[in-house]
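Think of the structure tokens as a kind of shorthand, similar to the way a musician reads notation: each symbol stands for something richer, in this case the local conformation of the backbone. In the example below we present two proteins back to back. Begin with the first one, reading the sequence and then the tokens, and try to describe in your own words what changes along the chain.
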Amino acid sequence: MAIEPGDVVVLKSGGQPMTVAAVDENSVECLWLGDEGELFRETIPSIALSVVAESEEEEDLDVEDDEDDEEEAEHEEAEHDDEEDEEKSSKKKRRSA
């Protein structure tokens, strides 16, 4: 798989993801953010890089979607519990009348 501008890559030896800005014959210009938010730009030999698989990027998105699904399920459960409490309250009122 050829490295193209816009791809996300990592060093084969490890490290954080970097975005490809430009590709030359044997080198790749990469951009990434440091721990404190500073922007870095470096030209790296293409042989030292691996493209991050799209499935890994999708997994990150899936984790966020799963968190949203969990919050929605908790909200629906809370609404259901409220409805049950209202029903019980209504039954008690009818019994005491």
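Once you have a description of the first chain, move to the second and do the same.
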Amino acid sequence: MIRRSRLAIGMEILAALSEGPLNSSRLAQRCNINYGRLDEDLKPILALGWVTKEISGAHDLHKLTDAGLKALTQYLVLWNEWERGTKLTGGQQAF
């Protein structure tokens, strides 16, 4: 089993929210992580201002910010370049 890095999980969270706001339960389900892990992985994302969290009574709602969309876009550009480089080198890793 391959473990995902915290960065990869963070980007999955941003990608899920790029499709629209989600509550914690739905977000954890979409990213295939448990609720406790979601809470930990949201902390830096919230601190960076990439996501907002609104609480109304017992309900919460996470929304992607413009800064979060920009971070996700930059990540995807880098990821696509990495994948292109991997294909050009026959799948060999650079390090």
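Compare your description with these statements about the second chain. The helical segments are 6-17, 24-31, 35-47, 66-88.
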